[in-house]
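Ticket #4471: structure output looks truncated?

Reporter: J.K.
Steps to reproduce: submitted the chain below (625 residues) through the standard prediction queue, then opened the result file.
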Amino acid sequence: MLMVIAAVVPAALMGLLFHTEVSRISGSIQAQLGDINSTVINYSTSATDQELLVSSKALQYEEFFRRIAESNQFVADYVASGFSDIDRVADPNSSLSLTLRRAMKRNSAIERVYLATADGRLASWPEMDGTRNTARSSSDIHSLRWYTAAQAAGGTVWIPGDEMHMICAAPSYRNITLYCVAASEVSLSNIYSDLSGLRGSGYPFIVNRTGDLVMMPKVRRGDAPWDGLLISGNLYRSNISAFAELGDHISKGKSGSDFLTIDGRGWFVVYSPVKSVGWTVVVAYPSEQMMVPLSLMESSVNSISQRSAELMRSSSTAIFAKGLILIVISGAVFGFIGITVRRRFRRSAECISEALRRIGEGDLDKRLPADCDIAGIAESMESMRQSLRMLIDRARADGYERGAQDRERSVLKAFDRFLFADSMPPIEGYDLCVRQISRGGAFYDIQEIRPGRVALCMGRAGGDFMDSAVLAATARMVIRALLSSQPHDVIKRANGILARSSSLPISCFYAVLDYSSREMMYSNAGHAPPFVVGQDGSVDTLCGDGIPMAIRDGLDLGYERRSISEGDVLVIYSESMIEAQGFDLEHLIGVVRGSRAKSASEIADDIESAVPRRDGLAVIVMKAI
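Returned output as attached by the reporter:
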């Protein structure tokens, strides 16, 4: 009881002392954090990262529609120029057919072109339903919505089609008389895929001037309030008043942001118009995830750090003085107790000393003597002896198991040369850097197909460590054996081989870069979407089909084209890298955007520093110079 009292009282006094000092320090720091929080919530002096991202997407979609409108107007003017005959649209060698073929090739989103002349002739290209495509006389062309709209507007108009299509119509004149109207049926699937790439920490959608919902990626059922918006289909028809307020702001046709409170939760909403088609791109973020400039946070953190250091220095002096007094008092009390109880333990000390000596020498087979004076000590030491014996036996067994695990790690390390490229070919006009700290299912390859063209590949195999390592090595060797300038053909043929030997999924991104044209063709089979950060900070994600290889026998993907211009930074990364806690795609994009002016090696250094769990890192950084 004396030892308990002597131990508890000083500890209680020290605890009370620490509690008082910590409460004083935390109160001061909490007040500063409140000021910072107020500053963050009311911050509105410059554009946030979310506003820049949404604005860049709106400009990207504006450029998409502008290119199609120019192509459509070119076709209309070509038909009205008198150098082509609409009646020869079915002739594949006619100048009109060749012009239409080139226009659709330049804009892969154009699925069909319609031509209607003022004298009642109507044709479409390419052929429909296997029938020969010839211009036919139609006395009812004014019943075509796109024809009458373009005629009335006297210029290019955009007409909504079904959920994933629009029609662009442009009139053309001879002198001052309307001669024809050219219309293009445009697929919006690329915009939908790109908009889905923003579905992470926020909720992206597109509305028109009247508040109708044009496009929105799928949300989980019950993911309020955005599933309610999807059901109502209009900002003003929703039963949430904040949506109507948002519609009023969007109707002004300007970029901006707003804070909305819906069902007690704050949302930071960013919007930017696509003026050519009357759309507005909107992304809603939870207010707690709102990004503020790094300089603001850095100055606030520095202020807190300096104040905390001052408080800790003053508190440490007071605690040291008071703690020294408590140490002296406790030493005196424990010294008195030690002298008092020394005589009672002297005889038992010899017995205990002998027993401990034998245990220290490794004699664990002989039982301990039971003649010690203090009740319970001999029994406790005997129990300790038996426990030590069991631990030693178990340690020997565990040694064999660890040996097997070490062998498995050695095998995985040996697989590295089958999973990653030994050397990188020089790529003229590009700065390339690869960082890899990974084991198991991730793989990549960089190979020159022929002079002036290089293939870049990265993927990941599913399964346990050993299974995924073997499958990843197999997939890399198969893809290397099938190297080609056609990404979709490589993916298709590799899938046919891998699907016969495994049912585990294998994601893969395969791209071919042409040095001279600075154009890249790519196909993506279920891999985490790479992205390109432009010199101006714009971001373009390279999405693809969500189906990985080896899941089914037939996998026929398409391909996309993307130019990599001067200053552009292409980043291809392993999926496991963005699965680390506290690190996601949005964070990775933010790191690259902040470092885009640096070299590829420096950008890779910044990415490696930002990833919290580096054992899953595999990234290719390529910058056009």
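Triage note (M.O.): checked the attachment and the full token line is present. The chain is about 45% helix and 20% strand.
Status: closed, working as intended.
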